[in-house]
Amino acid sequence: MSEIIKQPIEEEVKSAYLDYAMSVIVGRAIPDVRDGLKPVQRRILYAMNE
Fold this sequence. Notes:
The protein is 64% helix and 0% strand. The chain has 2 helices and no strands.
């Protein structure tokens, strides 16, 4: 059987929200190079490489 672990709700919500926020950032905000980049995105990546 499973063991029940007592944990404060604040910690659980903080952890769940952080996981969700990171998945949104990675999934939506960061462009995928395979999809093609807009000129401004290319310039940003080039400047970051310098």
